[in-house]
């Protein structure tokens, strides 16, 4: 009896879980990066959901039209890539509308975000009901899995990180690039200056509003990739309202990650892991207490990981001892090992509650119960030249 | 004498000016949305005529408009009240949900005389909504957590918890049903029907009454004065000896209570008198447009709610006649919000001079809380 349980909960199961967590985290991380670009430059973005929804639909339509246009002469992958480009473009246009309303017309940024979300729901449902569904348009397919040679052979790590569809890699690269760019390049310094103290930035000759326009719009393109992921990597076709709140989970990841892309990725992984666990719980592969123990272990390791990356980047500034990170990592690993090895008594906990994690976590950091998430100082304020 | 005449004239012009922007915004939104119809091959004039007929063309249509306007009015009042207090309650969606759930629970779990049962069930819904809004209010007052983000998160928390309660084996799940839904409330909890053989329930009157109460509260009571003072300038309010923290929590609670009442009326007033997860989804967000279109004034909100109710009521006939998906209504509603909020667009388009009045509300400036 006990053996059967242990066999089910072995390393294959665990790597599978982490693999799935990374997949589930990808659209959330893209969305969070869209929010990061926008909010770091001082524009609140609650419209990530709308941008992702638009990206999902345009990825579908873009790939279908490109396929029709070329008459199937080009390989399928070309149509799918065209879909990605179209998704990025249209989501960027939606973001540009958000920028136009909130920067040029100085509309309250929350209201502008609400406008975007309403319009995205209206437009995508309209197109789906008027055009996609009646014509029974079929999708082109999904992007292929690309296993990276050599790296994908590494035990555990290879299976978890290096055998994915392309957008997962793009996401990981973008997180690293954004983290570096935001804290180590002139672009990042200017962006942060515009978000923290626009007047000072203006004084030294930075064009505050132009920078905000660029950042919000480019961020929109990233949200478009997040939406495209839902269509081009998993389902293969557009479904009405298919983002189902992921844009808001992305917002949660951004805040829980304290407005850094590495932090946002850590949070997205944690939320993705919770989602993956939910799937496995429903299948009956794990029991509830075990799932909670696994989640706690992953949470601790994610914290240690994010912390050590941040420390690496801000070399010299962070005086806290590395020992704490090591201890955290060991505690996390021990928790996971315990979760996998011990036979946990089965207790009924409603699995829906796992899905509450992102939302509760965000409320806790905003209220300062767990750490403190402090937004960029000038966020929400339109900038007017004095 | 001449000056009195001049004041009257300028006041009339001010009222006209205040109406001009919303009306032109509505008109412009309808024009822009008609482009989408033209693209999809429909005659927009025919579609809008069908929309109008579906909203006002018969008694059934007019009743439907009033029924649809009712939750918009209550939710819009809740949002407007919070705006007046300097708070952006984007969590009305969740508060509606909680209000509906509590009301339906009281409605189906006990059987009481109607005079007690209806008020009790609605009061329960109001308390549910109030509590669900007061927690983010408290977190803002106490810890400076911005209410926009916390209420968004609370929307999802409410959604998840409530879908669990009516899911398989959930505590509120109706026995022996396929779909996730609660049992229907007892007869004694259902709102009386105003016109025999119609769907017009007494909730419409409650909602209109609520608009007057909100007006009275805001401009005729000490609490309303405090609420508006805190909204206009928290530092000045504090200097004047007003307890700002307490006011934030109270404003959120009142706002949530209105939303909870709206949710409760929906379950007690409309067949099948129960609660499902698909219930009123998105209403809380549309109501932001209602509140802004109504210039966050109770009577303006009532007019805006009537318009939104009419659009929702007429959409079905429009879809039937012209094959335009009802989603065009969501597009129109989004565009109206955009044009009212970005009134510069409307002013430039129709060459209306800018007034020297204060600009549109800007609430996200208080990001991170003041303290």
Key words describing this protein structure:
heterodimer, A: 386 residues, mainly alpha, ABC transporter involved in vitamin B12 uptake, BtuC, two-stranded antiparallel sheet, globular, B: mainly alpha, 14 helices, disordered C terminus
Would you give an account of this structure?
The complex is a heterodimer of chains A (386) and B (371). By secondary structure, chain A is an all-alpha fold. Chain A has one domain (2-287, 347-366): ABC transporter involved in vitamin B12 uptake, BtuC (Orthogonal Bundle), CATH 1.10.3470. Helix content of chain A is 70%, strand content 1%. Chain A has helices at residues 2-8, 11-40, 48-69, 76-104, 109-132, 157-161, 166-184, 186-196, 198-203, 208-235, 246-256, 261-283, 288-313, 322-341, 357-366, and strands spanning 146-147, 163-164. Chain A has a two-stranded antiparallel sheet with strand order 1-2. In chain A, α2 packs antiparallel against α12. The longest helix of chain A is centred in the N-terminal third of the chain and has 30 residues, at 11-40. Chain B is 71% helix and 0% strand. Chain B is built from 14 helices and no strands. Chain B has helices spanning 2-39, 44-56, 59-84, 92-109, 114-143, 147-165, 203-220, 222-232, 234-239, 244-269, 283-293, 298-322, 328-341, 343-350. Residues 356-362 and 364-371 of chain B have low confidence and may be disordered. The chains are: A mainly alpha (386), B mainly alpha (371). At the A-B interface, α5, α11 and α15 of A face α5, α6, α11 and α13 of B.
